[in-house]
Amino acid sequence: MRLAEPAFAHTRSASADAHGLALIAASLVAATAIAFLAMVITAWPVRAGALPCGERLAAVETEMHRSLTAAESLGDATAADHCTAAKAHLASLTLATGAVDACTSGAERTAKIGLLRQSRMEWQGVVAHGCR
């Protein structure tokens, strides 16, 4: 009796077809996911680091001036307010250091990075000793 063999061959063929369809479906899902990610990445808003250097340096200088003015103008505010302002200025100094590092070179870079690092160390001391 050879009846079992044709049924097995038919099942095997259907299984191969299902496997092929599953591979095609998986490939389509992967291609769709990749296309979606590419669309999201290309439509993502421009980060501050992607600005041209002139604009980036101007932005960090403006932010440093704003945060320093805010920290110095608190007067008799609470210790928590002073601490928050000092941390904000420290963050602006960190951003400025990154921008100067990326956008300048030579002696100008060395001098500016040195001043920013010195200022950061001083503000880190303020935060370390004044914020609990």
Describe this structure in words.
The chain is mostly helical. The chain contains 4 helices and no strands. Helix 2 packs antiparallel against helix 3 (79-103) and helix 3 (79-103) runs antiparallel to helix 4 (106-130). The termini are far apart. The mean pLDDT is 77.
List descriptors.
mainly alpha, 4 helices
Give, in order, the helices and strands: HHHH
Strand content: under 5%
Structural class: mainly alpha
Helix content: over 70%
With helices defined by DSSP (H or I, 4 residues minimum), what is the helix count?
Answer: 4
Report on the biggest sheet: none
Average pLDDT number:
77
End-to-end separation: 88 Å
Task: Give the arrangement of secondary structure elements.
Blueprint: H1 4-43, H2 53-72, H3 79-103, H4 106-130
Helix pairs in contact: 2-3, 3-4
Task: Give a quick summary of the entry.
The chain is 83% helix and 0% strand.
